[in-house]
Design a protein that fits this description.
alpha+beta
Length: 288
Amino acid sequence: MYKQIDSNKRKSLALMVLFVLVIVGMVWAWAQYSESGYYMIIPATLFATGMSAVSFFAGDKIALATAGAKEIKKDDNPYLWRMVENLSITAGLTMPKVHIIEDASMNAFATGRDPAHSSIAVTTGLLNNLKNEELEGVIAHELSHVKNYDIRLMMVVIVCVGIITLLADWMMRSFIFRGRDDNNKGNILMIVGIVLAVLSPLFAKLIQMAVSRKREFLADASASLLTRYPEGLASALEKISSQNIPLKRANKATAHLYISSPFKGKGISKLFSTHPPAQERIKALRNM
């Protein structure tokens, strides 16, 4: 389990560095082509960062509202409340706010910018269909996202994706309006820039998927350390993956937050899922 955690932390760091390199590459391509220095790219970056800052500080509220999650108190559901409270104490965490989503689909997610500003949401389908130790495994998984600061990392990833998408759009428009250059070097750089502008959003999405998948494995391993019972989460994932009910209010922007893809995609759509295949996660858990 400790090897799994160390491996995933290293890979996540490498992927975040790759994000930065993609952004730097886009800036370099435009600067080389326009011969105007790097100052023109600054306004676009500042705008994207400003918009993303709003998402960073209010993203949890937006995610919860989008999912239709309603905050509960202890008297509303003592069973769920006590489970979250006990596992939070075990993990040494401030207890997050607890929410319930009225949905037959079995799913859950954690959100927030840090452990002191975190929330956990579970569906009624999850509460009604999982045994005690299975639900405990799912809650431990979500608390692990909080403790490992995955909730912050994924918000940073969203910021990076936003910046890359905005820069790509801005570069594409600039190349179109600027037109062809009189020298071959300018034309070659324009072609390179256009290719980079077209492919960068795809690169960003692929990196986002890779980060999300690595953090799911990390949370699974951390949850096993918390409960000391990997089979509970493995059994829960079997039930969740076998159910073919998508979330009513599934959203692509928040899909990576859930313990399992809220879309229940099949075939080629699974290749672009933010979640690793359930069978791989179950196998890793049972190998522990």
